[in-house]
Design brief:
8 strands; four-stranded parallel sheet; alpha/beta; single chain; 11 helices
């Protein structure tokens, strides 16, 4: 069988950010998958708001549309409701391309929901004991993303509310977005001790939610890929080794999650597991890393 061809798209112009994704994705060691990487040749060097996202789509779309036939799947490696996802899906529909397009933002939400629905290893009776609902939240970069990503999560849940599969996890299980005050490029250019302190502070604020028991933390920026260990350290420092460890809180790298979820979606298509008329979103519903036979891949 020919390997799956995935195009990983960094829609900003930072070649160093693209290069940082390559070892992370390679280390997933997914069998029979070939990766190609795309960096925007022009446009914003860092996507720090919705305007930047739209601008980057304007620069990237014509080039990416021409590349669709050469690939089975396209991963948009920007943690936002990036317009390229819907634009390329529409282009694929118009041209008869039978591949899949996925953004790392929606992939991370699928993993979070799947994890909460199926339970983490030490979840038994925990909700009854604490009186708190299990939840997920996001650690991201600049403060503007608190509102933008919250709106994106709300829209994502709203789009799923009319789907064919009833969902137990709803927007009421979302603990919000906490930010570092650093933009994507500063995560790798700022002094390491500053990055560590800011990421840990944001994680602690998320974990201290008064009404929800945060069990899944999503790394809300492609530039945070590879920095999940900092969030894990904060979880252990805040909650203790057992509660804050891998058996208590799942830390999800959105880029790794995006690759794994997209590959699983493509394999479902290849195996004809989808039903006639099902939308692309249904292919990814409720995916959790353990379901893919990949253990904790994409988690830290």
């Amino acid at each position: 069988m020919a390997p799956l061809s995935l195009l990983v798209v960094n829609p900003n112009t930072s070649t160093s950010m693209t290069a940082a994704l390559e070892p992370l994705i390679s280390n997933l060691k997914l069998p029979n998958v070939r990766y190609t990487y795309f960096t925007a040749p022009t446009g914003p060097s860092s996507i720090n708001n919705d305007t930047d996202a739209l601008d980057s789509a304007t620069h990237c779309f014509p080039l990416l549309a021409s590349l669709l036939p050469a690939h089975d799947g396209i991963l948009i490696a920007c943690y936002s409701s990036h317009p390229l996802v819907s634009q390329l899906r529409q282009k694929g529909t118009e041209t008869g391309w039978n591949g899949l397009v996925l953004g790392i933002f929606e992939a991370s939400l699928e993993v979070a929901v799947g994890s909460l629905e199926q339970g983490l290893p030490d979840d038994k009776d925990e909700e009854e004991k604490t009186g708190k609902r299990k939840a997920f939240g996001i650690v991201s970069t600049g403060k503007i993303w608190e509102a933008l990503l919250t709106r994106g999560v709300e829209d994502w849940f709203r789009s799923r509310s009319t789907g064919p599969i009833p969902r137990r996890i709803t927007i009421s299980h979302f603990a919000g977005v906490h930010t570092t005050g650093l933009n994507a490029s500063e995560l790798h250019s700022a002094p390491p001790d500053l990055v560590t302190r800011r990421m840990k502070d944001a994680t602690r604020r998320l974990l201290r939610h008064e009404e929800l028991d945060v069990r899944v933390v999503l790394l809300g920026c492609a530039g945070m890929s590879g920095l999940g260990r900092i969030v894990r350290e904060a979880c252990v420092e805040e909650c203790g080794a057992e509660r804050g460890g891998v058996m208590g809180v799942r830390v999800v790298d959105a880029v790794a999650a995006g690759v794994v979820v997209l590959v699983e979606g493509l394999r479902r298509v290849a195996g004809r597991e989808q039903e006639e008329g099902r939308g692309v979103e249904v292919l990814f519903e409720g995916v959790r890393m353990g379901d893919l036979g990949l253990g904790g891949m994409g988690t830290v």
